[in-house]
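Supplementary notes for students who missed Thursday's class. We covered one full example, reproduced here. Read the sequence, then the structure, then the short commentary at the end.
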Amino acid sequence: MTQESAPAPAHDPSHRPMERSRSERPGTVPGPSETPERRPLPFLLDFFPLEGEKHTRLSSFFDSLREGRLTTTRCDKDGTWHWPPRVVCPKCHSDALVWTDLPMTGRVYAFSAVLAGAPMGMESEVPFVVGLVDLEGVPLRLFGRIAGTTWDRCRVGLPVAVEPYDLPDGRVFYRFRVGP
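Structure (token representation):
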């Protein structure tokens, strides 16, 4: 007994995929006339998160940054500090979280230089420094960009301050700045 396979579908020469412009095709890189300033990055390649209430339940974090404050959530039930801010405690699964102001100073715990391969839209800023910072007085270590020094002058233990800054598209984010 032999099994017969279904015949392969005939190729329909009249069927053509919908044409898209170069900038609409997934996975394409902007051409010379399409600069990142003129065309928003695809969502999956955007280094910075969406901040509005319709996009995240953590919009209070970004509102606080706009006011010059760094905040996070802390569980009211078990006292656990969270970074990044959460909507549910990963330890006890409670949603009884409170927004808490964080210190605006800390010290570099570890760092690395970005000498190549920067995220899309940040290529012109290479080289730059990123690192882990221990905030003073709280059990949290944050990751972020370290400004105000070059990669070859950055050192473990260097004092830094949190610096909220505005992005060109109206969003806000934070970085650490080496003090004077």
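Commentary. The CA atoms of residues 21 and 42 lie 15 Å apart. Residues 47-178 form one domain. If anything here is unclear, bring it to office hours.
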